[in-house]
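Incident review: delayed structure delivery

Summary: a single-chain prediction request sat in the queue longer than the usual turnaround. Root cause was a stuck worker, restarted by the on-call engineer. No data loss occurred. The affected request and its eventual output are reproduced below so the record is complete for anyone auditing the incident later.

Affected input:
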Amino acid sequence: MPHSATRRPSPPTRTALTARRRLVAGCVVAAATLGLAACGTASGALQPTAGVSTQPPITIAPTDSRPTDGPVATVAPAPGSDSAPSSAAPPAVPKPRTPKAPAETTAAPHGGRPSTPVTTTPVTTTSVATTPAATTAPPPAPVKPGTVIGSTASGGHTVALTFDDGPGPATGQILDLLAQYHAKATFCEIGQNAAANPALVKRVLAAGHRLCDHSVHHPQPFAKLPHDKAAYEITAARDMIVKAGGPGTQVSWFRAPGGGFNADNEQITASLGMSSLGWSVDPRDWSRPGVPAIVSTVQKQLKPGGVILMHDGGGDRTQTVAALKQLLPWLVAQGYTFDWPAG
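Output delivered after worker restart:
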């Protein structure tokens, strides 16, 4: 039997090799597109690789995807801030997909499936110190100066006798006259005079009369004094009077020399717990106009509840003592009772 030679396949031509390379390249592209793991056999047929999952391919969500179902973290307003607290941050508003804004992904732990990115709206908070600020108590309100007093405490058919510029040589005589008529009076004393005559100050108090501050040196015009000077004149005089009178001495009023009150010295007076004392009747006895003039002026000007201004110091007070001898019985006859100034 004749021996037949085995036919060997002819080698592929250059054209066939080129075609096959193109086919394989196309296979790779098609596999990437269709999700296939590999291309087919050497013959160029496209076949899915055994064991490759047929589930849809995993895609990475773009930036316009919705947030996950989990809770969205929020930033609570700091205590004391002006922001009102909210329960959750508002969801992100979907934006049109654009090729210039690629999605940002968060890598999953251990190479797992990347999580869907969540877009959160930034929350601006005001930086607040964790330690509460110390609260400073507001300063106390200034003491309001009272109205300058020109009437009695009780009102009605009463009169308040006041004597300025003592204690002096006439003080003892005036105290004797007041005692005869069971009259009470207020003595507005000069600080340096009180310091020089403490026995007279004590006698005034022992007789049941009251004291008033009338400055240290009787400067005028008193309303023109600077604050520091006015404060000294009022405060130092009160201290001198209290020292002369002894323990428990009270000074309830201040009378400005010449009636020179203003808002500043009234404020000083009020801050020391005293009232500003004026008058409603002024016979100008200090000028020694004569006894008849002093008596007549008092009788004409006095109204129920009035405050009479006279003097027991500062010069010769002979006319004042003489006028008082007439005025005291007249006041009693008119039905006046003796009272303290208001305040």
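Verification: Strands lie at 158-166, 185-189, 210-213, 251-254, 275-276, 306-311, 337-338.
Action items: add queue-age alerting; document worker restart procedure.
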